[in-house]
Design a protein that fits this description.
Number of strands: 22
Distance between the termini: 16 Å
CATH architecture: 5 Propeller
Number of domains: 1
CATH superfamily: Glycosyl hydrolase domain, family 43
Shape: globular
Number of helices: 1
CATH class: Mainly Beta
Radius of gyration: 17 Å
Structural class: mainly beta
Strand order of the largest sheet: 3-22-21-20
Order of helices and strands: EEEEEEEHEEEEEEEEEEEEEEE
Largest sheet: 4 strands, antiparallel
């Protein structure tokens, strides 16, 4: 039986996911993206869609209520846009996340290095919010975590974590202590080998927490998990109905807009939007 009903908090979601072209309106990148992710900006209550290409550039789009519009100002002032690394595949993998009320961005790149940014105002920008380089948010991370590093920052139950896929089949996991990242495999409990350059997409629906892991350079389509309180438990519901497309450059971005849950699935030049009923 393909359809199922699963309760999420006070809501009920029926599967499988269905194609939804409305969530794709306006999202027409002029470059092939090797990575996408999503970010909900609490400062202006707006969803953003982020993308990185193989030349190290980072792009952003914001949701207006009916369409995605290019939003380069969201990343340009913080010296993020047009940062080039080395022109290799999966060169730029931006992840934006909150720790408490403060928003951060960490960008992974081909050689396993990290660049950190903090969202806010400074004396030089007292009236506008922008991304400012922050070495503090990458404190404690290894100088080289491994090539093709793909980062996912998240805050769960009051604790911030960083999940990093690399060119090996295994990921690295870190916990924020308040001043630095500390290696901590707790957040990876239940997750097996994820394939080369595996990337994580974390999101919540109701009271439940999910991970979709796309293996960027592997025949594995994706791995899906639900948080069980102390470990991740395999759960194929989220990606049910979403076909695998290609073996490379796969990633997903999740959005909750007007009470509806959406996933945009990206594979190089191909991208499709889905709604979770």
């Amino acid at each position: 039986m393909n359809n199922r009903i699963i309760a999420h908090g006070n809501s009920v979601y029926e599967g499988p996911a269905v194609v939804d072209t409305a969530i794709m309106v306006g999202f027409n990148p002029v470059t092939e993206l090797v990575y996408i992710s999503s970010f909900y900006n609490r400062h202006n209550s707006t969803w953003y869609l982020l993308g990185g290409n193989s030349n190290g550039a980072v792009f952003s789009w914001k949701w207006t209520g009916s369409t995605w519009v290019s939003s380069p100002e969201f990343i340009a002032d913080g010296y993020v846009q047009n940062v080039t690394f080395d022109g290799y595949d999966i060169a730029a993998t931006p992840s934006m996340f909150y720790i408490g009320s403060q928003a951060y961005m960490i960008v992974g790149e081909y050689y396993g290095y990290f660049t950190g940014y903090q969202w806010g105002t400074t004396m030089s920008h007292p009236s506008s919010w922008f991304w400012d380089g922050s070495s503090a948010i990458i404190s404690g991370l290894p100088a080289d975590v491994g090539s093709r590093s793909v980062v996912c920052g998240l805050e769960m139950d009051g604790t911030a974590y960083l999940l990093v896929g690399t060119d090996t089949d295994n990921a690295s996991y870190f916990r924020w202590t308040g001043s630095a990242w500390l290696t901590d495999t707790f957040i990876g409990t239940g997750i097996p080998s994820i394939g080369r350059a595996g990337n994580f997409n974390y999101f919540e629906m109701g009271n439940e927490k999910f991970l979709v892991i796309s293996s960027t350079y592997s025949s594995v389509a994706w791995l899906t998990y639900k948080w069980g309180g102390s470990s991740w438990v395999a759960n194929d519901y989220i990606m049910s109905g979403i076909p695998k497309i290609g073996n490379e450059k796969r990633s997903t971005a999740f959005f909750n807009i007007n009470g509806n849950n959406y996933i945009i699935h990206n594979q190089g030049p191909n991208r499709t939007g889905y709604r979770l009923p």
